[in-house]
What does this fold into?
Amino acid sequence: MRDVRRQLETQVLKAARTFPAIVLTGPRRAGKTWLLRHLFPRAGYFLLEDPDIVARLRADPHGFLDSVKPPAILDEVQHVPEILAYIRARIDQRPRRVGQWFLTGSQESPLMQGVTESMAGRAAVLQLLPMSVRETPKVSLLRGGYPEAVARPASARLWLASYLQTYLERDVRAVTAVKDLATFRRFLALLATRHGQVLNKTSLAAPVGVSVPTIAQWLSVLETTAQILIVPPFYENLGKRLIKSPKIYIADSGLACHLLGIETAADLAKSPFAGALFEGFVAAEIVKAQVNSGRRRELYYFRDEQGLEVDFVLPGRRSTIRLIECKMTRTPTPAMAVSMLRLAESIKRTRGRETSIEMVLLHEASRAAIRTSALVPGVRALFWRDFLDELP
It folds into this structure.
């Protein structure tokens, strides 16, 4: 997808004018290497998965770095995290030289620990997620946003299967000691069936036959490698008994469909998971928009013990709150907005009537769709692509 402009480019270029180093993290195959080599074509490139380069670096780190003439891209730096201390020393010698070191890493947890200890104040840390709908309309619920799957949709199924295998064999074992990969595969398949549900570690542990602490460790691996999306609950003193566990989604909808055995649009249309997949797709697109614009992630859901539930709560500027319902339908109706209206009333009673609340019902496209906004004051019904275009 060389013709696609990644939205994070603006943030990367801005950081390169301000910081000596940039650390670009994100899931494997999201396009980190391509982005840096595209933006900085004159920078030297070194892949730290190459055994010869790794051996040279570990045997003589100063000698290796002396042979590197910045600016330089050091790809997959998590394989040799000790290099960060040596780069820090070189930055400190010439702290005013910006845009010199570009580091990538597929696994965030070990890499971030090294950055925190070695590069604090010297590096801008950015995250590149798979491609978004705003970057190319070829991104879809069925195929997801990984560049290879988007570029070659006919072979997306094979690519996703290969990606899953590579992720299991390389990334998972690099982060934690998963001894039984077959059990971990069963866990991933089970997790896909819980897509969009409130996280319950006990209910995941029993069918797989492992302990709850093991499930917690595996979920941590998936989160730190950006394979799952955790959406925390929106909590305010609304006079209600609220659900306080997060909701969980497979981060890429194409990978989620693959794990669920959904291969075609017809499979998706009749799948009992279609609504949850649509909901997770919207959540991922919102997070991508936030990350790509350099803002922190802020996405919540609401559910209380009496059954009141709203898919997403999105804080906005100047104390604005946006309530979002996702319905995989081409015929939105006023009844679909009831939960948002009830929650909005509760929030206004707590915060005050001057609180600004926007309510949006997202749905599939239809030429003859009835707009809920014409029937329910304060609620807009939007084709989901139109909503994504509105995001900052």
Q: What stands out?
A: Residues 142 and 257 are 6 Å apart (CA to CA). The mean pLDDT is 89. The two ends are 24 Å apart (CA to CA).
